[in-house]
Amino acid sequence: MMRGISRKGFLKTAVLAGGAIGFPAVVPSAVLGKNGSVSPSNRITVGLIGCGRRSGVGGEYNMVRQSKLLAVCDPVKWRREASAAEWNVPDAHNDFRDVLARDDIDAVHIVTPDHWHVPIALMAARAGKDMYVEKPLSLCIGQSLAAREITEKHGRVFQYGTQQRSMRHLRMGIEIVLNGHIGNVKEVYVWCPGGAKGGSATPELPVPEGFDYELWTGPAPMKPFCEDRCSPHGPPKATYFCYDYSIGMLGGWGAHPVDQLQWWADAENKGIPVEYKTTGSLPTEGLFNTVVTWQMEATYADGTKLYFMDSKTARASQEIPGIEKLKQFGNCTVFVGEEGWVAVSREGMLASTEALRRKAKDPGPRKLQESSWHPIAFVDAIRNGTQPVSSLDSAIRSDIICHMGDLCVRTGKTLGWDAQKEMVTGSAEAVKMMHRTMRDPWTL
User: Fold this and answer.
1) Contact present, 170 and 164 (Cβ < 8 Å)
2) Domains of the chain: which residue ranges?
3) 56 SS3 class
């Protein structure tokens, strides 16, 4: 929240401001209670925070009777107006705090650049909102750990944007592994698309009219505006590839296949690896400065190995079982056991034998939580008071794995993770990098 403005003062101020612009008279479902007491005729009301590339999900809340999108928000005027018009939403806000202050909104869907995810999520929880947060979870490990406040202190429903958990074939593939059909898992291979080089900080340009660049930058360092840093007219560039706002594809795309790993690891009570060796490349010139390629070898406490890399490195590997079949997958999680392997990707599910793959029809008694539509599963969790399929605790664990890889590349050190202290070990520099300085007046 902002220094110098108390939570009570912020809410009172924002609510008064909201009343002046005419919020719709919709009774929020939260007023009527949860745990099954909400009548089907009372929809969960949602505010969309961020109208960029992933914001198309906002319209899904208007496709079912359980929910209603009431407001959109973006610091780019034409984006929020276009989204509001597309989904017939009555209100388009510039400032997310106006959305959080609304008493007629139950939940928010956060689709901002990565550096805003946890700060907004924490403010949403303090304002009494449930939330769906797009991946990756955070900008640094410290933010990931701070996010626990959302559920532990405020008891809010949190759904992580790893929608692959709502894909039936992925769930069934992991259930094959959990039911022992490949024997004990010895190692897991994970990959996703790598990063990008280039980008230019010049020419410095005037901030376009209708773009609140100050608010977009928020807690990140203020830098001169240029198209490659933040393009309000097109797809994000530095939003993914500039370290001020993201750790790059390692976390932004890695969140998906690492989450599939974590789904299995959580079911097996394995936690996360305790040792990380990661090599990789960083750009040496240009604006972009997140990891481009990487190759991680991580070890769990029981000796199980995790190998996490970019897809280019994976396709060139001679170590990954079945890689000739699996090169078609841009992101993938491959579980290798004593008796075979199973690979899951949003693009499909493959196994070392056809007979093994067919086990998906009836893998056995050990089951994972079923979900068929990620945003609506979030709505159902709010209505029923149940745990979403992509929980905050699991998000924190998978997010830390990605950050550990980034820290290894940046420090050039082999690092450890102390699960009891929740602390990086092996490098004082890496310990400092667990946290990011936030620009005034923003704090967690």
Assistant:
1) yes
2) 7-164, 167-370+391-444
3) helix
- For domain 167-370+391-444, which CATH number applies: 3.30.360.10, 3.20.20.140, 3.30.479.10, 3.20.20.480? 3.30.360.10
Q: Tell me: the pLDDT tens digits for 30-81?
A: 444 444 444 545 899 999 999 988 778 888 999 988 999 999 999 999 999 9
Distance CA 127, CA 101 (A): 7
How far is Cα 147 from Cα 126, in angstroms, rounded to an integer? 12
Residue found under tokens 């450890």:
416
Say whether 341 sits in a helix, a strand or coil. Answer: strand
Q: Is 60 exceeded by the pLDDT of residue 443?
A: yes
The Cβ-side half-sphere exposure at 340, using a 13 Å CA radius, reads: 17
Which pairs with CB-CB distance under 8 Å and at least 24 residues apart come from 91-98? 91/21, 91/23, 91/24, 94/212, 94/215, 95/212, 95/215, 96/49, 96/120, 96/123, 97/10, 97/14, 97/123, 98/14, 98/17, 98/18, 98/73
- What pTM was estimated for this model as a whole? 0.91
Distances (CA, A) of 380 to 64, 200, 212: 11, 44, 34
DSSP character at residue 2: B
Four-point Cα dihedral 46, 52, 57, 63, nearest 10: 70
Q: What angle do CA 290, 296, 299 make, to 5 degrees?
A: 140
What is the secondary structure of 122-159 as a DSSP string? HHHHHTT-EEEEPSS--SSHHHHHHTTHHHHTT---EE
Residue 313 CA to residue 192 CA, distance in Å, equals 10
Measured CA distances, 282 to 171, 183, 294 (Å) = 34, 38, 9
Q: What percent of the chain has pLDDT over 70?
A: 90
Residue 375 three-state SS: helix
> Mean pLDDT across the chain, nearest whole number?
91
CA–centroid distance for 337 within its chain: 29
Asked whether 34 and 383 are in contact (CB, 8 A), the reply is yes
Pairing of strands 67-73, 91-93: parallel
Coil, strand, or helix at residue 347?
coil
Residue 1 has pLDDT above 70, yes or no: no
- CATH class, domain 7-164, is alpha beta
Closest alpha carbon to 415 in 406, 407, 426: 426
For residues 126-155, average pLDDT: 98
CA gap 126, 252 in Å, rounded = 26
